[in-house]
Q: What sequence folds into this?
C-alpha cells in the first residue's frame, strides 16, 4: 500500500514539474518574442570584447533605431560607408549629414532600408560599416556596426547600447551558466531545448526569435562564450537557461 502511494506521489510530482516547465518556457519565449528591443553592451559594440562588429539587418519597409540613451552619451560624428541601400537620420543634428547645426549632437540614430541607388564611386554591396563617435562620462568612444540587407521578417526595431553593468551585457567576470558541461555539450543541450520548444509549440520556425536563437547557437558552437553570444544575438540569459532546462527533457 505504501509503495503504491509513493508511486502516485512521484508521478504527480513529475507531471507537475513537466507542466510547470512548459508554462515557464511559454512565458519566457512569449516575453522574448514580444520584445523587439535588442540590447548590446558597450564592450561588444566597441569591439573591446574581441567580437566582430554587431550586425544590424534592415528589412524592406522597416527602420531600425540605434539608441545611446542608456549610456548617456552624445553622438558627435558618424560615417556611413555605403548609403546606396539605406538612409541615415538622427534625433538631433549632425553637421556631417549635409546640414548646418547650431548645436551638434544626437542620442538616437535611425537606419532605413531604401531601394538601391547608383552612387558614382561606391561599389554595389549588400553590407557596409557604420562608425559612430560618441562623448560621455567615460570619454570619447568609437562604435562600429555592420549594416546589411535583411529578409522580410522584422527581428527588432531598436538596438540599445547599454552600460557594462546593464542586463544582457557581458560583465567583467560573467557568471558561468554551467560549470560541468563543456562548451560543446552546452550547445548540444540548448539545441535540443530549441527542438523541445518547437515540439511544445512554444516557438515557430518562421518567427524572428527562432533566427535570433539560431544565430546565438551558431556563435556558441564556434566557441564564443555563452554570455557574449547571447548579447550579440539579442537574447536574454533567462531564455538561455530555459533552453538548457528544456534540453534536459529530450533524451540524448
A:
Amino acid at each position: 500500500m505504501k509503495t503504491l502511494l509513493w508511486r502516485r506521489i512521484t508521478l504527480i510530482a513529475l507531471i507537475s514539474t513537466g507542466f510547470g516547465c512548459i508554462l515557464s518556457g511559454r512565458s519566457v519565449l512569449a516575453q522574448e518574442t514580444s520584445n523587439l528591443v535588442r540590447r548590446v553592451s558597450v564592450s561588444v559594440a566597441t569591439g573591446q570584447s574581441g567580437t566582430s562588429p554587431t550586425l544590424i539587418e534592415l528589412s524592406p519597409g522597416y527602420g531600425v533605431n540605434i539608441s545611446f540613451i542608456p549610456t548617456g552619451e552624445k553622438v558627435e560624428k558618424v560615417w556611413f560607408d555605403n548609403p546606396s541601400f539605406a538612409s541615415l537620420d538622427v534625433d538631433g543634428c549632425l553637421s556631417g549629414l549635409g546640414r548646418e547645426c547650431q548645436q551638434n549632437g544626437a542620442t538616437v540614430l535611425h537606419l532605413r532600408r531604401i531601394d538601391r541607388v547608383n552612387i558614382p564611386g561606391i561599389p554595389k554591396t549588400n553590407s557596409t560599416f557604420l562608425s559612430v563617435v560618441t562623448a560621455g562620462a567615460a570619454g570619447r568612444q568609437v562604435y562600429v556596426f555592420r549594416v546589411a540587407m535583411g529578409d522580410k521578417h522584422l527581428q527588432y526595431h531598436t538596438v540599445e547600447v547599454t552600460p557594462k553593468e546593464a542586463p544582457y551585457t557581458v560583465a567583467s567576470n560573467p557568471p558561468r551558466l554551467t560549470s560541468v558541461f563543456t562548451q560543446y555539450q552546452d550547445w548540444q543541450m540548448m539545441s535540443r531545448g530549441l527542438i523541445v520548444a518547437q515540439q511544445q509549440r512554444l516557438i515557430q520556425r518562421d518567427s524572428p526569435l527562432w533566427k535570433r536563437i539560431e544565430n546565438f547557437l551558431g556563435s556558441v558552437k564556434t566557441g564564443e562564450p555563452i554570455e557574449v553570444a547571447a548579447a550579440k544575438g539579442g537574447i536574454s540569459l533567462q531564455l538561455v537557461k530555459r533552453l538548457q532546462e528544456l534540453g534536459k527533457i529530450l533524451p540524448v
In short: The mean pLDDT is 78. The two ends are 35 Å apart (CA to CA). The chain has two domains: 24-36+174-247, 39-162.
